[in-house]
Design goal:
Beta Polymerase, domain 2; Methane Monooxygenase Hydroxylase, Chain G, domain 1; 2 domains; seven-stranded mixed beta sheet; 7 strands
Length: 356
């Protein structure tokens, strides 16, 4: 399962939303917290600036799970003054990972990856907006990637509840990056297993798995490579929305993204090597088969010659030079003795020269 392309037709008006028909309706979960309190609710009524705004120094996290209702999304955008072009980038996927400084928000667009229950790779786009005391996260609803952050907020001793909204943005970005590590570990195990199987007995299905791995790793690299640029852009951000401590943690995100890039490039090289190993194993097997067939054909060449000579049946009576061996009393036995002797000598020569 790969990231679906939801793009408006050519010539569409800027800001037009292209929502996939199978996209689930939005579920809007609102988490409000400060160092002492945490409340989690699901917004089902009208969305207004007053109902979503933080109060009393709290931080508000608005998590939109599903993008299948344009009216609901535009209502959220009006309540939080999200520009139409930014909302279009949220819905019209896939977009390149990026960081944009908007009039009232810091807009972060990234991608997530996971493994489906059938083992296939799943990818999806995640959008984050940092405002004054709140963070909005929007994703298509195929995978809930932020449950670990919710568990962290529910811990009364969590560092996240004692920091501002910018630190929550860092926690979400860090989670998106860290989710790639278990996916790459699964790929590493699959590559090791496939390598052992190819060396034991290369089969056609192995090449199909190699091509599947190459395709999945390429898809992963498309999501991982921009993450490093994204983390670097957040560190260099000059919008005053990120404090110094958050920037220090984002530098750690940059290091993790760089490590992910190295890991996926290394695995792509291993998969390319597996394809070479598969082709070499198939070629060696074919060479062994051809060697056996060549030996058999070579052994039968002199036997065919002897049999063809003695099978000419020239008339013997009154013509002493016409096949005198045909009159031998043990000619048939001598014929087979000659054939077996030729085979034995040839096999001895093959073994002596280490041809098999």
């Amino acid at each position: 399962m790969y990231e679906a392309r939801n793009l408006p037709p050519p010539g569409a008006v800027a800001g037009e939303l292209a929502i996939a028909p199978d996209s689930p309706a939005p579920t809007i979960r609102v988490c409000r917290y400060d160092p002492d309190h945490l409340t989690e609710t699901t917004e089902e009524g009208a969305l207004t600036a007053e109902s979503l705004a933080p109060t009393g120094g709290e931080v508000v996290w608005i998590d939109v799970h599903g993008l299948g209702d344009e009216a609901r999304l535009r209502e959220l955008a009006r309540a939080l003054t999200i520009p139409e072009l930014a909302l279009a980038d949220v819905v019209n996927a896939p977009q390149r990972s990026k960081v944009d400084v908007l009039p009232e928000h810091l807009f972060v667009l990234a991608h997530q990856a996971w493994r489906e229950s059938d083992g296939k790779l799943g990818t999806g786009q995640v959008s984050l907006l940092l405002g004054d005391g709140y963070v909005v996260s929007l994703h298509d609803g195929r995978s809930d990637c932020f449950e670990a952050v919710r568990q962290r907020l529910r811990n009364p001793r969590s560092r996240t509840t004692k920091r501002g909204a910018d630190y929550l943005l860092y926690a979400l970005v860090d989670t998106l990056i860290d989710l790639y590590f278990p996916v790459l570990e699964i790929f590493a195990d699959e590559i090791d297993t496939l390598q052992d199987e190819i060396f034991a007995d290369a089969k056609t299905e192995h090449q199909e798995r190699i091509f599947s791995l190459r395709r999945d790793l390429l898809s992963l690299r498309r999501g991982i490579w921009p993450l490093r640029e994204l983390a670097g852009a957040l560190v260099r951000d000059d919008s005053d929305q990120l404090d110094e401590i958050t920037e220090q943690h984002l530098r750690d995100c940059f290091d993790h993204a760089a490590l992910l890039t190295e890991m996926v490039d290394s695995q792509r090289d291993l998969v390319a090597g597996l394809n070479d190993a598969y082709l070499a194993a198939v070629s060696n097997r074919m060479n062994e088969v051809m060697k056996v067939l060549t030996i058999i054909a070579t052994v039968f060449i002199p036997l065919s010659f002897v049999a063809s000579v003695f099978g000419m049946n020239f008339e013997r009576d009154g013509r002493p030079w016409n096949m005198p061996e045909l009159a031998l009393p043990y000619g048939y036995i001598l014929f087979w003795a000659l054939c077996l002797g030729v085979v034995g000598v040839m096999l001895w020569l093959f073994r002596k020269n280490r041809w098999f």
